[in-house]
Amino acid sequence: MTKTTVPIGPQHPLLKEPMSFQLGLEGERVAESAMRIGYVHRGIERLCQERSYVQNIYLLERVCGICSHVHATTYSRAVEALMGVEVPPRGVYLRALMCEFERIHSHLLWLGVIARNIGFDTIFNYAWRDREIVLDIMEDLSGGRVSHAANTLGGSRFDLTDEHRDKILEQLQIMDAQIQLLLGAVEHERTLRERTRGIGKLTLEQIHRYCVVGPVARASGLDIDLRRDRHEAPYDRLEFAVPVHTDGDVWARTLVRVQEAVESVSLCRQILNSLPEGPVTTRVPRRVPAGEAISRSEAPRGEVIYYVRSDGSDKPARVKVRTPTLTALVTLSEQLADVQMADVSVVLSGVDLCIACADR
Amino acid sequence: MPFRVRSLIYMVPQIIRSLRAPSITVRFPFAPAVIPEGYRGVVKVHAELCRGCSLCVRDCPAAALELHRENRETYRLIYHPERCAYCGQCELSCNFGAIYQVNEISRSTLHLSELETVLVDRKPEEEDSEG
Question: How far does B11 lie from chain A, in Å, by closest CA?
Fold first, then answer.
């Protein structure tokens, strides 16, 4: 059979960010695929070496437009470890609160994208409409919808009053009802199930081989979540379930993400109700002593790792970022093997790629 | 087909809600823009509090602030909104509470030079009159 090559990207309506695929088709089936990334490389890691530790918080926040807060938090934690500074409990809780809001926002955004890509516009509109509730809360808290600038070395930049907390709890109640509606729609809608079941399958063995993390790994039966496994504040005092499914297909990933968002709403409520009193930030020394530190966090897409090395000057000697998307990217050729051309969009959106994160 | 009925059941309240909801778009610039109170917008300064220490300039991640200093008493603090990342680090860095952000957005223009704002223009005689 003759082989047809179909290019997708770098600019393509299917892709929200630039990356390029060359799909070799045999009839309607994908026989081979090649991928090219690097279109949004901005040299952020190199730029970090040119800027001070404080300036880098805002630079690293711009690694990603969706999980911006978790990047800044992970970097701040690494620098705080170098300085030997301990963040006050209230600061830790507020950082976690923002991370959970970000997780809801990221998962709802993804649900909208996949619903749009499979032609289910109702879910797309509902998911993106309800995401606004979270974006409004985040804007209210920090002053920015996307780049929150909620972190500083030594703690959190925003604080909550009791009235503010009550207002957020009220908004969370609306959010809870909406997200339950979305969960119900995802679980019971036959259209979504039929369109995503059995597509982009990854076995547990493949997950281990490619070191995949986050919701993609949890959808294939790997029970990992840094929030629970690290036993650190504030998650060691909060109750939450880690949704794990074993099917390993896009359907399982959809369920994992929406159920995670439901858990995050509950986590936000728990954090708000158990917010410790005290300062939100602590004084940090101006100089960072020489040394190196590694910091890890559970971002919406999986584990993000920061490595920071200091030579004692006012700028870091090296900042290295390992984003969760990188691990998911390498599985794409396996997932694309032998799928129908019409299902390529489902596979590509199913892994929740963040190319800006991976390219940096 | 039961799944169609189920779809309708969850959609009907949503449809009613959407029909009853007011429009959330604003006819900007004919109507005032709705900006939340805590929004991090353009940078302003209480000029009398500024000491020209340049801590804000040092920490600004976007090089949006410039301090032109002639001598101890004569300096100008210049703000470039087009470079500003609206992160508010300047406000955090200022030890004297001089620099702050307001919930305003900077106006659009065809000429970059029009955006440049002189936040502080300190001259020796001004300081004398204050003192």
Answer: 9
